[in-house]
Amino acid sequence: MNILIVSYEAWRDTNNGGNVLSNIFASFSDANIAQVYCSGELPQNTVCKKYFQISDSMLLTDRKGKALDERDYSVSSDKAAGAAGFAVKNRGLQWLRDPALLARELMWTIFRWKTPELEGFIRDFKPDIIFAPCYSYFHVSKLALYAKEVAGCPMISYISDDNYSLKQLRFSPFFWINRLITRKWIRRHFAACSLVYTMTDMQKEEYEAKLKRPMKVLCKSAEFTPREAAVGSPVRFIYAGGLYLNRWRMLSKLAEAIRALNRDGIRAELHIYSGSRLKESRVNRLHDGTHSFLHGAIPFSELTERYRESDVAVHVESFDLKNRLITRLSFSTKIIDCMNSGCAILAVGPDTQAGIAYLREHGAAACVCDPKELSSTVRELVDHPEQIRDYAQRAYQLGKQNHDRAVIEKHLKQDFREVIEGKP
Fold it and tell me: Does 280 reside within a domain?
């Protein structure tokens, strides 16, 4: 089986999109896998070795994309990636983001990217199936549709965020122009797909009704192994993931709660691992070097070890209306990592958000759905270590029941075979 992946991000295990790709395709050991992607970074994973790169900057040069030399990309030559320490973001003009994104889409419309080199890469690989995740960047959908046209094979898509509905709180006309055009391309993208995966039942039901395509739920999977470990002293809280969409704000409140708890001695610590760039003022709210620590992004293999050294894995979503609407249908891949960590889960976010609702429904986390209850919940966990062990066991049981890798991989491979064979 030859699988061509058409996606935006470089396939790196240190970024969310790359981590998801590795999780999905690591079991396809008998398949040949290649990727066409639109980022300027180099890949870093142990699954795929064959790539064609078309970055934004390449569109402005004579070389409109290139095939990367086929070699082992499990260790990247990009020394900056995964480096120790956190990234400080300079103050910038954030209001330029929406027009800049629209300008990029215009650039992909004007400049020639359908080159003989890209066509030759696709034809030489001879894909049996294309896997093309859906983004809010519609040039990636254009690229996927072109790859399908050249290859003449079926296509599967995967959508994790709400990139289609109009339930958004934004005042920028550039955002809404981009959104409306993106909706058109998502309809074309999905119309060309034999199957579309979503991450939640909520999103599946909403999108099936609107887009009339066959859909299934696909969550990240893991090999769940029981962990018996005493709760540490101090209790170690760990968060790994992005700090955007105001997640940093909820983590800063958690850091404040831990500082208050530690007034009479260090009883808890918060360790944050993220590649997100933050303003210096926000970094200072998350990192004081005594109660809370902000680290840079690390490879997933190392992150697994950090989880195993911790007691409470933290998942956060924002409470403000704008970001609640952005994330309402999303199911963060970090939830599965938290379940598989052996830690208890502290989930902070509105109960209308799909991931938080899932954890709360199954009693698999200490859920804080009102920010005013965060300090008391943290204190309750630290004062009663038996609750941490109980929540850890509940998280493990839910993960084993619904997200076991062997079960999900079996269904995933069956879906791919049936799509290739043209079965409904």
Answer: yes
